[in-house]
From TrEMBL, chain B:
Gene Ontology CC: plasma membrane
Bilayer-crossing regions: 21-42, 84-108, 120-140, 193-215, 276-295
UniProt keyword annotation of Lipid biosynthesis present: no
Keywords, alphabetical: Cell membrane, Membrane, Transmembrane, Transmembrane helix, Transport
Family membership: Belongs to the binding-protein-dependent transport system permease family.
Organism whose genome encodes this protein: Bifidobacterium tsurumiense
Biological process per Gene Ontology, one example term: transmembrane transport
Subcellular location: Cell membrane
Transmembrane among keywords: yes
Name the UniProt record assigns to this protein: ABC transporter, permease protein
Domain ABC transmembrane type-1 per the UniProt entry, residue ranges: 85-295
Length: 338, 310
């Protein structure tokens, strides 16, 4: 709150100053070349005033929430206001590591988070391969159609993905009915309401949704590769396979590396949409990633303070990761990624 | 990709046997994957217009069985669906318009060298891309600001988007500065320069921003989940989510709880839970499918610009 009032105050006073300065500025601007200094300053200030409303929005929705972190040090039970809540210091942080049951849950949640992020990173070269393979096909209309159709899932929400999953894989869904009508199975298979291979299933949905889209950047990069490289290789008798290995892939590696670094820095941020829509009583144990856990603790159990503490740790670690990754990138490639 | 022609013609003359076999598998893979990407949407559409009994029996897999629009009529009569559709439409239109205007304006303003502490304020905005207070602090803040159960929570936080601002700024920087100087020489103020010169020239990048923002607004679901308890403010995505879960409950013959579930249950006598679910899904995905062919050409542009650093 402090920062908000501070900035609002600054705005008000700035307004007064500029009003006065504007009059003076208007006169001096006519002969800009001589009286340049003051008029430029006023002009610059008035330019700044124009963007103040947007700066306020940024403060409200990006900076102000940071002050919400103080709730992690109180026992906040809405609707009791923060001012009447008990200050508990680091109690919530201690609880995370001291309470064995809590520790076990956190351990499982971290395992899920690491598994999902790890699997995503392990499969992060799929879009690259997808782009290279698609580029090998000569018919342009085919390439374009494939690109159009495979990008589509990227533009639908996770809710809709879940709806699709439900239509296809629920106990009354298309697959079960098809298999039953063909008398291959008698009992419906529980694809969604079970905890078998949860991590793998989530990975597959992620790939279904993102593979086509992810390959677009690589396809654009391939189009940008200097054609003389290929021509020279052909003169030297390189096969298509050799051209891929020795030209295309090395040329795509910088792009791949940047994306890889970004996904490493987002290691803890799986997002919650996907896991939230797919979660149910059966797969809860293996689907609850950190983001979903924060939601479930905070909004489900109404433990806002504990959830804030976890949120806070997560954000701090994420920023730390970003710094580390950026430093690594500077060390190895000479350029930063942010 | 244009230059691909030049490369592939020469070696195509003498493709080896292995390459030919590989080619067949390659094409096969893409056909199958493209099919997997599209078939679910086709499945939803044909089931929503087919005979409900056949659909419920799982007989509609390839072709529509019969044709009727009764499902759509019934679904739009459902409590809350028209409201949710309106909310989703409103947030998409208003949210997109404001984001585009703000991105264009800020992107332009941050190129104005004369602005007081320009670099500082630019970084002040851009740095917000890299940190995040977290879900719960955000919720508490919104609550304190009186934005929970308030339509504007869909729109206001999305207005200032550092990423879009970087995109526009990079774009404006590619416009010759002499244009602005010439206009100023003729007496145009900063706002005139923005409105008359910069804005019309930025249309391509603003179209990209608009499309991605509109898709984001239409698809957004988490904000309803967190900030809204008033069902009048539910978005279409969230409503679909509740319907899926209720249909799930009905299908498992678990007793339906109060509220909207009752409406779904009552409708289920004529329409099946499956038909309702699929019909609402189609309604949610249809706008995306409609605008998809038009915004496809912005993909690469959007991605490429995304790769440009700020």
């Amino acid at each position: 709150m402090q920062s908000l009032e501070g900035s609002a105050g600054a705005t008000a006073s700035a307004g007064v100053t500029s009003e006065a300065a504007a009059v003076a500025g208007r006169q001096s601007r006519r002969k800009k070349k001589n009286g340049g200094v003051t008029s430029d300053k006023t002009h610059g200030f008035r330019l700044w005033l124009l963007i103040v409303p947007f700066l306020i929005l940024s403060v409200l929705f990006s900076y102000l929430p940071l002050f919400g972190w103080i709730y992690a040090f109180f026992d906040y039970q809405p609707p009791i206001p923060l001012t009447e809540s008990e200050f508990v210091g680091l109690q919530w942080f201690k609880m995370l590591v001291q309470n064995p049951a809590q520790l076990a849950t956190i351990g499982q949640v971290l395992a899920n988070t690491f598994a999902m992020s790890g699997l995503n990173i392990l499969t992060s070269f799929f879009p690259l391969l997808f782009a290279i393979a698609l580029n090998e096909i000569r018919a342009r209309w085919f390439k374009n159609r494939v690109q159009t159709l495979t990008t589509l899932p990227n533009f639908i929400s996770w809710v809709l993905v879940y709806s699709v999953a439900f239509a296809m894989f629920s106990t009354t869904g298309m697959f079960n009915q098809l298999l039953q009508n063909l008398h291959l199975i008698t009992e419906p298979i529980k694809f969604l309401d079970s905890d078998s291979h949860t991590w793998l299933k989530m990975l597959m949905w992620g790939i279904w949704k993102g593979l086509g889209w992810g390959s677009i950047l690589y396809l654009a990069a391939i189009a940008g590769i200097d054609q003389e490289l290929y021509e020279a290789a052909q003169v030297d008798g390189a096969s298509r396979w050799q051209q891929i290995i020795h030209i295309t892939i090395p040329q795509l590696l910088p792009t791949y590396f940047v994306l890889l670094m970004l996904s490493v820095s987002n290691f803890l941020n799986n997002g919650m949409d996907q896991y939230f829509v797919f979660q149910n009583a059966f797969n809860m144990k293996h689907i609850q990633v950190l983001d979903l856990y924060v939601y479930n603790v905070g909004m489900g159990n109404n433990s806002l303070s504990l959830a804030t503490a976890i949120s806070m740790l997560k954000s701090l670690v994420s920023v730390g990761l970003l710094f580390v990754v950026n430093w690594l990138s500077k060390r190895t490639r000479g350029t930063s990624i942010v | 990709m244009k230059s691909k022609v030049a490369v592939s013609v020469a070696p195509s003359m003498r493709r080896t046997r292995g390459e030919k076999i590989y080619n067949v598998f390659n094409i096969l893979f893409f056909v199958v994957f493209a099919f997997i990407c599209v078939y679910p949407f086709y499945y939803l559409i044909i089931n929503s217009i087919s005979d409900n009994a056949a659909s419920a029996a799982g007989q509609v897999n390839w072709w529509p069985d019969g044709f009727h629009l009764e499902n759509y009529k019934q679904v739009f009569a459902l409590d809350g669906l028209s409201t949710a559709a309106f909310i989703s439409l409103a947030r998409t239109v208003i949210g997109t318009a404001l984001t585009v205007i703000a991105s264009a304006f800020l992107g332009f303003m941050f190129t104005q060298q004369k602005m007081w502490r320009r670099t500082f304020w630019y970084r002040f905005i851009v740095v917000t891309m890299y940190f995040n207070a977290g879900l719960i602090p955000m919720f508490i803040t919104m609550k304190n600001l009186g934005l929970t159960n308030n339509f504007w929570v869909y729109v206001l936080p999305a207005i200032v988007q550092p990423f879009n601002i970087i995109l526009v700024k990079t774009y404006v920087e590619s416009i010759p500065a002499s244009l602005q100087e010439a206009a100023e020489m003729d007496g145009a103020g900063t706002m005139t320069v923005f409105g008359k010169i910069i804005l019309p020239m930025c249309t391509p990048i603003l179209a990209t921003v608009a499309i991605f923002s509109a898709v984001g607004q239409w698809n957004s679901f988490q904000d309803t989940l967190i900030y809204m308890t008033d069902s009048k403010l539910y978005s279409l995505q969230y409503l679909l989510y509740t319907y899926i879960n209720q249909a799930n409950a009905l299908a498992a013959s678990v007793k339906a709880s109060a509220g909207t579930a009752m409406n779904v249950a009552a409708l289920a006598t004529q329409q099946t839970p499956t038909s309702i679910r699929m019909t609402v899904s189609v309604i949610v995905v249809l706008p995306i499918l409609f605008v998809y062919p038009f915004f496809q050409r912005f993909f690469v542009k959007g991605m490429m610009l995304g790769a440009v650093k700020g």
